[in-house]
Amino acid sequence: MTGMAICRMAVMQRITGRIGKNGKLKESAVSYAERVDKPILILHGMDDYRTPIEGAHQFYVAIKDLHPDLPVKMVAYPHTGHEQPTDPRLLKHYYHEMILWFEKYL
């Protein structure tokens, strides 16, 4: 398991408290949107076949609908799968978004 995968799993476990024995969410993250009470940044690849972008978008919309005052942002990266972008320009943007978010909300 990569460092990013461990980080994502830890974040989802903290948000939902629902990680199965195999290290995967027991249900879709959308089903936990009402429990979210922390700012959420969603960085997602548009070509992610493991976790399709539709699920991330549904999670984003659910949080916006349920918690209109909670900061939530979604950024979709073209030509990117389940991992971080490989295009240097997109990778720079990816980390820039993350750093700005951390500076504001951590």
> What percentage of residues falls in helices of 4 or more residues?
40-55%
Strand content: 5-15%
Q: In which order are the strands of the major sheet placed?
A: 1-2
The best one-word shape is globular
Structure description:
With 106 residues, the protein is an alpha+beta fold. Helices cover 43% and strands 11% of the residues. It contains three helices and two strands, in the order αβαβα. A two-stranded parallel ribbon has the order 1-2. It is globular, with a radius of gyration of 14 Å. 8% of the residues are buried.
Question: Could you list some keywords that capture this structure?
Answer:
106 residues, single chain, two-stranded parallel ribbon, globular, 3 helices, alpha+beta
Protein topology:
Elements: H1 3-16, E1 40-45, H2 53-66, E2 72-77, H3 88-105
Parallel strand pairs: 1-2
Provide a short characterization of the protein structure.
The chain has 106 residues and is an alpha+beta fold. The protein is 43% helix and 11% strand.
